[in-house]
């Protein structure tokens, strides 16, 4: 049986589900899974189960339930039924999924930002290294130019000395 709250949440009338197995409210992938077999093994052994469960309502609508499956034993300790208490948490699960997706997007953006920042740092580092090399080359060129200037002065001095000697030689030759 099912109470009116369950029927309203799932979108069914009692006549539509009376006599139907629990698997009618589950996705086929769940029904054929080891987890679902374990679920029934636990219930058949009188074990309590509580969790959030994804179920399928009328027209394939996804319904999330926060539910407990509570074993009820007779006076002899034999399991004779399981009572389910459930609260619909579909909206809450949807919000949690939205938050999770937003967190994933934020994480991806932060990862991309980290990569971009690292690329920017690499560009700056390469630019600094290039500027250092240019500075070193300019220093070397400057030293070379300074040495050329000194040699030019020396050559000029030598030329003047030779010029002076030549002039004295011309005077002596007269």
From TrEMBL:
GO biological process: chemotaxis; signal transduction
UniProt keyword annotations, A-Z: Transducer
Span of domain Methyl-accepting transducer: 86-174
GO cellular component: membrane
Domain PAC: 49-101
Matches recorded under InterPro entries: Bact_Chemotaxis_MeTrfase, MCPsignal_dom, PAS, PAS-assoc_C, PAS-like_dom_sf, PAS_fold_3
SUPFAM superfamilies: Methyl-accepting chemotaxis protein (MCP) signaling domain, PYP-like sensor domain (PAS domain)
Keyword Calcium (UniProt): no
Pfam families xref list: PAS_3
DNA damage as UniProt keyword: no
Xref: PROSITE patterns: CHEMOTAXIS_TRANSDUC_2, PAC
NCBIfam families documented for this protein: sensory_box
PANTHER family on file: CHEMOTAXIS PROTEIN METHYLTRANSFERASE (PTHR24422), CHEMOTAXIS PROTEIN METHYLTRANSFERASE 2 (PTHR24422:SF10)
Descriptive protein name: PAS protein
Species in which this protein is naturally found: Pseudomonas syringae pv. japonica str. M301072
């Amino acid at each position: 049986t099912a109470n009116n709250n369950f029927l309203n949440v799932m979108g069914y009338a009692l006549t539509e589900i009376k006599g139907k197995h629990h698997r009618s409210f589950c996705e086929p992938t769940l029904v054929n899974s080891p987890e679902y077999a374990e679920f029934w093994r636990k219930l058949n052994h009188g074990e309590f189960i509580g969790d959030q469960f994804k179920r399928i309502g009328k027209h394939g609508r996804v319904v999330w339930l926060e539910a407990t499956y509570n074993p009820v034993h007779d006076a002899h300790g034999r399991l004779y039924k399981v009572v389910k208490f459930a609260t619909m948490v579909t909206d809450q699960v949807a919000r949690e999924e939205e938050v999770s997706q937003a967190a994933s997007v934020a994480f991806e953006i932060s990862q991309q930002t980290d990569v971009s920042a690292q690329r920017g740092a690499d560009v700056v580092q390469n630019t600094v290294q290039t500027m250092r090399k240019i500075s070193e080359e300019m220093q070397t060129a400057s030293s070379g130019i300074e040495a050329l200037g000194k040699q030019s002065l020396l050559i000029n001095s030598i030329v003047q000395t030779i010029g002076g000697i030549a002039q004295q030689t011309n005077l002596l030759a007269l």
